[in-house]
Amino acid sequence: MYAAVEHGPVLCSDSNILCLSWKGRVPKSEKEKPVCRRRYYEEGWLATGNGRGVVGVTFTSSHCRRDRSTPQRINFNLRGHNSEVVLVRWNEPYQKLATCDADGGIFVWIQYEGRWSVELVNDRGAQVSDFTWSHDGTQALISYRDGFVLVGSVSGQRHWSSEINLESQITCGIWTPDDQQVLFGTADGQVIVMDCHGRMLAHVLLHESDGVLGMSWNYPIFLVEDSSESDTDSDDYAPPQDGPAAYPIPVQNIKPLLTVSFTSGDISLMNNYDDLSPTVIRSGLKEVVAQWCTQGDLLAVAGMERQAQLGELANGPLLKSAMVKFYNVRGEHIFTLDTLVQRPIISICWGHRDSRLLMASGPALYVVRVEHRVSSLQLLCQQAIASTLREDKDVSKLALPPRLCSYLSTAFIPTIKPPIPDPNNMRDFVSYPSAGNERLHCTMKRTEDDPEVGGPCYTLYLEYLGGLVPILKGRRISKLRPEFVIMDPRTDSKSDEIYGNSLISTVIDSCNCSDSSDIELSDDWAAKKSPKISRASKSPKLPRISIEARKSPKLPRAAPEISRSPRLPMRKPSIGSPSLTRREFPFEDITQHNYLAQVTSNIWGTKFKIVGLAAFLPTNLGAVIYKTSLLHLQPRQMTIYLPEVRKISMDYINLPVFNPNVFSEDEDDLPGDAVWTD
Fold first, then answer.
1. Any bridge partners for residue 324, and if so which?
2. CA distance 562 to 551
3. Per residue in 494-515, pLDDT tens?
């Protein structure tokens, strides 16, 4: 076999990722057909729980083609927990998601018409040690650290519960493959066995000095009926040489093995809980996390090195690294994947029919491509060449045949396509629509007011992997009207240079105001280069609004009055608020402040106009009109005017005299056509 970490920048969230769970996605065109496992597991959803109490649901794909369509929304941030989320568990047969937090709160989420909502809530007030769905998805097993265990239905009905009197805590709980018994592991090395009706069957001491960390079977987590359709019947079937990983062949006639991992790093492979001669794996790792692949032939064990097999970093001391070891059903060591991860691996999960292994370490998420069969020379050469290349665009520079270049480029196709921008292309990301049909969902947060810079500052964040990624900053410039300026994320004033700062520093430095937002990004996130982006939000092609910039006779006297505006800090020349002063400002004064756009408003706050301030943007970027009825007897109406913004070469752009004209107080309509009404 062969395993390698996916090439490209490391994916990160804004807080520590504590748990992972993956499920396959059924395409809409095949919901009424029998499930073909190969098609079913090419796409899926990864659920993550983080330290901020947010659950992330992110789309993943193992396609080796870039032109495959994706859902319109590829990331959801589910909020509702009041403490860190420690467990996430998919229910594939019923397409539900169970999440547990550190305070004992349990939520069951369900998706309907593209929206996630909470279907069930259970809060006993005690810490949950494990949550497991039965293999048919109809029942849930909940175990608490204080010895209370509960079995309920998928609809929320309680079947039975029991209080187990123990001197130690329950650490994990699982179902047997036939769903007729439940097993619980304890911190003092015991396994407690109960039947599906709650009757006690056995107490078995497995280890006198080590506690049980986790238990699992080399058996599919859920039983999904597979159709008789062969793998090659898929429309997008490609031979193994067209992709970096081949789909594993199902393992037949393997008796389920009970796998028990201990705090010492040892792992026992047992035929049953009462096996007197288990196979013991000495992993040599600490803080181990073990999980069988879906086919049941490969066990992944992740943990930190115990001995002094240390690697020296380029600019740091000798540190221990995390590694992943793979074992077969006989407990034989097959492969070791060395990583540069310096933090413990908290959670792992298999995905895409065991061709991917996802790992969480701190705020970082790693994707490992796994080849179950003997790796070909072509695959080894692909990985070796891809490791020496920095980006996908460097493949075209190699003197290789087109077919080999195409095969080599598949090593750079990410499993998780990040919607976050490349810092080197931040300006284009926020200014122009992308080629895809995905929608980006954002969150805006207000920072504390700073008298030195004028009004309050706001930061716009992209939702990603349960976290928030800052992309734009703005500041209010008027105390009477809701008017704002939006900062240009490109801080360098030279048009030919591309800034190389990280994503976080780029956005924060572009706004000359203090950022005291409650989003505190970790050092690991800021230190790494953000992943490259396949832009994920395309605006529909709409008729362009033709609002020509008009020259104003007030322009000559506007320049000397700029510095006297009370709405911007006095330490820098102010652009003022055109809605109040009715002035226009020279283009040179605007560009020196690195402003991207300005939002102007009437005195009532019902009509807004978005004006482009940067040279590469048109003057008119859109408008928003709110209409309310008398006494609010009718629902409010919002009309949005959006022109189509295209990227134009700077050599041919014509810089008109800037005119941020706003609405008069009695103005009812705007030039152009209304393109969307809510």
1. 302, 337
2. 18
3. 333 322 333 333 333 333 333 3
